[in-house]
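Translate structure to sequence.
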């Protein structure tokens, strides 16, 4: 039998292990474009659940552990790999409902339920990926559950099957075989399964890298630590105080344990004379009262974080940072609202000028979580909210947010910034929802997008031998060619995007391109197309992409 505490510890172990190995998993990504890589996204997704699992008591039933984990994974899911991982583990929540402990058979049911959810969520499932590894491991688990009752023995064989299937992924996906690697998502899943096995074998939780290297918080570093907390409004009041310790007072461990039971973001440090406290809680009076048991107190500070956030909202349109999950549910005053994912001051301004109510900071290399997108949706003062992900690796996370919102949400599958802008500009405030959804979709599907970036690593992809640092030209998301010179690459890519019926060319230059260089490119493009097409140059300020080129 598996207790709630054992299941909790196995999930924490999995989170630590994928965090320790995220770089190893990232390096398996075949496409050399710098992006929110698989290992990083899986690690950030599980880290969100780890925080909540660590607060769970030892006597919690497996049903509660599974539910807390599944909910936190869903809200923290980043990128396609993170969303798929969250759905795979959602199976534990379904299969273990109302259970105090878990058997081998229930673990097998959990894997099966998770695989079913993950496959349903992916529009066109591809074999040779994490889905294949999870599915065949689940099949093996169901077979084993008929004869094996020992949890450690059962999970050992599940791990072995997952690893066996992982080694076959290059045979199922030619791109993996050509690159000489196994699937990154599948590798991440195997790492997590092995870390869970460590707990089932009695070896304890895999230690996280941060836990091995973190410096202890001291009285001197207290202010810098509490100043760095995210604005999460799970608990309303940010409470801080200093206690002058009474003679014979207990050490601060009991105080910390109590505060963790009534809030989060707890920091408690002490020296010979004082205890400094920081906690987010809905019961600041209880937090202060408990502190008084340890000595005398002077001028505690209590701040309502909801009021602070609402004041920021009233200043204008809301920008929700991917590291700031604070939000309140805004009144649904308007019929329609818009949330766009974007990075770069210029691009954010373009979306706001086009009518976006809320901007989620994110994109390539920084995929926002489901909760980040949900925060923006809830902050949008509208009954129906259109979401523009503007990146193929953000669409699934946005779609998961739909299930959590308290209003109607429509995710338009925009894969690039130009597609998102075109969709937004096609909105007609006098038309109904169905007309707008159709019109906005048709608008973004007409857009030709070019992106100029750099190779993050040496690789061979789609017949191209690519060296780290070389210029990559992407045509509608696919690698078109490799170049040595930036302007030459951008000019050549623009020419490829122009069609006989094209009317506009927009060159959006990024943070690593000077205005002079952008104007030089404009001159070349205008010399070629200026008599037929309008050519515009905009400072987007975006990271990663030197140029984003839109042709309509």
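Result:
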């Amino acid at each position: 039998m598996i207790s709630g505490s054992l299941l909790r510890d196995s999930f924490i172990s999995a989170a630590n292990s994928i965090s320790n190995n995220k770089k190893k998993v990232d390096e398996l990504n075949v496409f050399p474009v710098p992006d929110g890589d698989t290992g990083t996204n899986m690690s950030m997704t599980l880290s969100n659940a780890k925080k909540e699992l660590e607060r769970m008591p030892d006597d919690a039933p497996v049903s509660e552990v599974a539910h807390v984990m599944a909910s936190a994974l869903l809200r923290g899911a980043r990128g396609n790999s993170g969303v798929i991982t969250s759905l795979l583990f959602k199976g534990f929540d379904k299969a273990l409902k109302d259970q105090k402990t878990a058997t081998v058979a229930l673990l097998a049911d959990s894997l099966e339920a998770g695989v079913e959810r993950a496959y349903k969520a992916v529009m066109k499932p591809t074999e040779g990926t994490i889905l294949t590894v999870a599915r065949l491991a689940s099949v093996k688990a169901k077979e084993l559950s008929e004869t094996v009752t020992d949890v450690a023995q059962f999970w050992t064989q599940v791990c072995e099957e997952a690893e066996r299937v992982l080694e076959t992924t290059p045979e199922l996906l030619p791109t993996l075989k050509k690159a000489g690697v196994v699937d990154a998502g599948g590798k991440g899943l195997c790492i997590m399964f092995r870390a869970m096995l460590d707990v089932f074998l009695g070896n304890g939780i895999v230690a996280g890298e941060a836990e091995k290297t973190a410096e202890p918080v001291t009285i001197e570093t207290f202010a810098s630590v509490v100043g760095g907390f995210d604005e999460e409004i799970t608990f309303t009041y940010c409470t801080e105080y200093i206690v002058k310790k009474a003679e014979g007072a207990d050490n601060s461990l009991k105080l910390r344990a109590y505060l963790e039971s009534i809030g989060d973001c707890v920091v408690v440090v002490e020296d010979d004379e004082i205890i400094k406290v920081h906690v987010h809680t809905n019961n600041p009076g209880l937090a202060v009262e408990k502190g008084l048991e340890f000595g005398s107190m002077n001028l505690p500070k209590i701040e309502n974080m909801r009021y602070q956030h609402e004041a920021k909202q009233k200043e204008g349109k809301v920008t929700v940072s991917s590291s700031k999950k604070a939000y309140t549910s805004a009144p649904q005053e308007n019929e329609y609202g818009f949330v766009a994912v974007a990075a770069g001051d210029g691009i954010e301004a373009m979306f706001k000028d086009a009518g976006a109510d809320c901007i989620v900071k994110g994109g390539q290399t920084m995929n926002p979580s489901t909760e980040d997108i949900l925060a923006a949706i809830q902050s949008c003062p509208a009954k129906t909210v259109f979401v523009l992900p503007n990146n193929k690796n953000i669409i699934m996370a946005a779609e998961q947010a739909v299930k959590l919102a308290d209003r109607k949400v429509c995710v338009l599958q925009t894969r690039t910034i130009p597609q998102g802008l075109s969709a937004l500009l096609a909105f007609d405030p006098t038309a109904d929802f169905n007309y707008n959804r159709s019109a906005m979709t048709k608008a973004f599907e007409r857009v030709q997008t070019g992106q100029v970036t750099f190779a993050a690593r040496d690789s061979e992809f789609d017949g191209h031998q690519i060296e780290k640092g070389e210029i990559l030209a992407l045509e509608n998301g696919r690698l078109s060619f490799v170049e040595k010179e930036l302007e030459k690459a951008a000019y050549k890519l623009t020419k490829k995007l122009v069609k006989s019926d094209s009317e506009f060319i927009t060159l959006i230059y990024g943070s690593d391109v000077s205005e002079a260089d952008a104007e030089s490119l404009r001159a070349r493009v205008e010399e070629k197309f200026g008599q037929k097409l309008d050519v515009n140059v905009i400072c987007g300020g975006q990271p990663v992409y030197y140029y984003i080129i839109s042709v309509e």
